[in-house]
Amino acid sequence: MDMRSSPSSLAGPSTPDESAAPPTLSEAQRKALVAGAFRSLHVARNSTKANVYLVEWPPQSGHKVAFKDGSNRALWFSFFVGRYQMRREWKAMSALQGMEGVPCPYFRAGADAFGMEWFQGQSLLHFAPGELPAAAVEQLEAVMNEMHSHSVTHGDLHRDNILFDPASGRVCLIDWATSCVFRPKRRGFKAWMWREWQALDRRALAKIKARYTPDLLREEELSLLENGGTPLSRAVRRVGSLFKRRKRTRKEAPTVTPSQASEVV
Description:
This protein has helices spanning 27-35, 75-95, 134-149, 188-212, 219-227, 231-252, 258-264, and strands at residues 39-42, 51-56, 64-69, 105-108, 113-117, 122-123, 152-153, 162-165, 170-173, 180-181. Strands 1-2-3-5-4 form a five-stranded antiparallel beta sheet, with helices on both faces. Strands 6-8-9 form a three-stranded antiparallel beta sheet, with helices on one face. Strands 7-10 form a two-stranded antiparallel sheet. The chain folds into two domains: 14-117, Phosphorylase Kinase, domain 1 (2-Layer Sandwich); 122-246, Transferase(Phosphotransferase) domain 1 (Transferase(Phosphotransferase), domain 1). The protein is an alpha+beta fold. The chain is globular and about 55 Å long. The chain contains seven helices and ten strands. Strand 2 (51-56) and strand 3 (64-69) form a beta hairpin.
């Protein structure tokens, strides 16, 4: 089904309206969006990841939107983790709506998908040291500072989640699944969590500065890099290293062909 040739099946506003309540699409509308997608922006590597498509919304408007669809995820993961991550993403982007460097959320499509602003750019993985201008790093820091001023943390600021468009010189943060939206007044455990998650973002920014613009590193950022950050950030990296090591071990494990197995027998 081609959504561009069937506008009546996807009724919506003439343009994405930020002031109105976001529309919610039906399952049939979600399938129509996927079927009529221009192309895939991100293909899920396994059953715990979501697909991202470039779609047209509203129909026949010429307006391109990024559509994140997690309906392909394993049911157990979607129920216990995936939908929770989707809610976190939507909540964070809604809290920062209208802010430069953050995709604007447009519509929901059930509990497993939503549409958001499409940013034309490439992840920082495509830029070698010396290829990313200092102005882009400074803009990234400004986005992070403004995000923190709204009591929001990203939690996963690695290069794959930061897009840069050389033509416009703009940066954009994507994949808000690990984000947190805090209340302005924080006490006790929440205050501690705020400091820890904020430090995670700042250390991630320091790593990006060290790679692309080491001259912009400040003393406190050098300290974050040298001491490994806060206790929480060290624990997060330790868990991440364990998963990476396990994944690497699986890839390096020798495979036994049927002929080899028969020889052993």
